[in-house]
Amino acid sequence: MVARDASVLRNMKMSDSNMLGWAKDLFPIARSLTGNGVRQTFDYLKGINPEVITQSFETGTHVFDWTIPREWNIEDAYIEHVATGVRYAEFKRNNLHILGYSLPIDRHMDKAELLPHIYTQEDQPDLIPYVTSYYKDRWGFCMAHDDKQTLPDGEYRAVVKSALTDGELIVGDAKVQGQRDDEIMFSSYICHPSMANNELSGPVLSMALLKYVKDHYPKPRCSYRFILVPETIGSIAYMSRHLPEMQDRVVCGFNLSCVGDERAYSHVESRYANTLADKALCAALIGLDNVRTYSFLQRGSDERQYGAPGIDMPLCGFCRSKYGEYPEYHTDADNFNVVTQAGLDGAFEVMRSVIDAFEIGLYPKVRIKGEPQLGKRGLYPTISQKGSYSSIRTRMDFLAYADGSNTLFDIATLIGAPLSMVLDEARIMLEHDLISCDSNKNAL
């Protein structure tokens, strides 16, 4: 029997979801560490995957070395030039115009008093920066530097209709129980306002991956945990309740951040770059264009918390263009000119291949002694001629290392083949009963 085309053998190539549409729906919401924007976002995500469950931490609760802050909500903000009535830095035009967690204010002042409270990005003078003051009380606005420079002289009225009250910080997760308790973990964050790549790409990719597991593996081998939290304090709060369980069950994890553009694929290594997640991501990125690797010393997102001493989750970071490395980062230019469906689908394909590897069975082992007779199975050329074997080189190399001691990730790295191709070969070999695949936890 001739081997079927690889595209037929894959369960699904693309996400079968509208990640870009989800991101556009969520884009206008004014999110922060806490508040109604977070609630609205979780309500939307529960509509995609009802398995998402939220839990809360009251203001003042101690979570490891941190304390849950007051809840912040904002209704409106603007700067008004009194003489002309012209308004600047209007929150309702762009929610990046407000300093995150700004104190409320409604006060008249001259220009000299106002200017220190307007934050700009001088090296990108035409963009509105994203600036926060979560843990120190301040009031303020954000503007393009060029616009700040043209503010007229005179008296101004500064208005911030916000409220800081005792409330709650909300985190969420969704779990899929598999045949084994071993968990594959995906984490992303919900706390940034209208930025497409830095905020929304991670949560929508998580939701697409959750749908993929549910739709294509109704009885999965492994268990899965999808975490959505406000960055830093959210992951700390979540672990303050779930750490023993996570340390017992999680065997491989990924922090998903900035996964929506088309420019690069980035691996932010774990502390010692030696986890199963590091191996998985390295294998999944083989053959892709513009792959970049960053050490743990270049971390910046929640891989800091998951990789901290005493936590030591087997997790690494995955991005397309890494946070802080693309020019639109933390500005109003981080929009849907940056994030595309193709970019999101590329990220989905990387993570999908990792999920498929665990579900196929991580440790392939040839079932017969010696090299299999592939020709009689339609898996090897029956005409011997120079050059006729190049098309099945990956197949032969896969079998050479399928001895039960190497993971699918190891094999991809050893033979220099994209993980997706290795998975195709594993499926073909399983179809012909030439290998078995084990997911032995002790081996993990």
From TrEMBL:
InterPro entries: DUF2172 (IPR032610), DUF4910 (IPR032589), UCP015244 (IPR012353), UCP01524_HTH (IPR032622), WH-like_DNA-bd_sf (IPR036388). This is UCP01524/DUF2172 family protein. SUPFAM superfamilies: Zn-dependent exopeptidases. Residues 71-162 form the DUF2172 domain. Signal peptide: none annotated. Residues 22-359 form the DUF4910 domain. Pfam families: DUF2172, DUF4910, HTH_47. Residues 366-436 form the UCP01524 winged helix-turn-helix domain.
